[in-house]
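[job 4471] stage=fold_predict status=RUNNING
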Amino acid sequence: LVGRSPPSARRLPEPPSQLPNRGSAGAMAILMASPLAFPSPAGLGTRSGECCAHDGGGGSGGDFQWAVSHEADKQEMWLGHKIRSQAQHAHCIDDLRLLSTLFELLDLKEVHGDSVKLLLRTLKFLRWCDYSAEDLCAILAHASAYFTTIFEICGQEMDVLERGNVLATLIFLGHAYVLDETCPLHIWHQYLFHKYCPMKKLNSAVIRLMELMHFILRVEDVDLSRRFGAFVGSLRAAGALPPPLDLARPHAAEEGEGGPAASLP
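[job 4471] inference complete, writing structure tokens
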């Protein structure tokens, strides 16, 4: 994070303007996920890991759709049919894998298409803020743990559409807890929730979710490691992240292959 400018100061695309405001919904239902007039980058990355290198990628829409179809032949994704149907809203293919892993960790059997769209745009927004793939994995690991807690409390009253709305808000909480430099809630509102509720109601929803979790945002180490490993593993399996370093392997010099260390006792 050294040298990174604050997210609010980065050159993000202009948010949509003159959108209808749905300010009459309840505290938890205010995050109604219907199609967003969300600004799109010039193009979408088609190669694994390309989205981390720059905003917008370099492939055309047709190239991206071909890549998504080709990916379907290589790797089966949890709720993949739902995710691929909204692939045009993703920043790159890696985000499809991350979202699939999120749904699999939560053992979701059903998800609304509008929720998929909102969550893909949420990941795209984080990419625009220049957060790395590892940052996203840590954020999603925390958000998935938060959702598990929330679902145990009020899951029976949460319909399939509202799950995506709650998840998007929990991703905000996860990023606020994990990262040193965070993007303020009013910018999240400007880019993701402007159409659905006033800023005041979004803030109330965030506070309510924190109350349900007793304001505890820390995730136990074992649980966090399992969740973080799942997201990182999904990207490594596709070659989007390098394999972990093998710290157990001795250095070549220590194995008698020459070098200064070879002569040490």
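[job 4471] summary: Confidence is low (pLDDT under 50) at residues 1-6, 16-67, 252-257, 259-265.
[job 4471] exit 0
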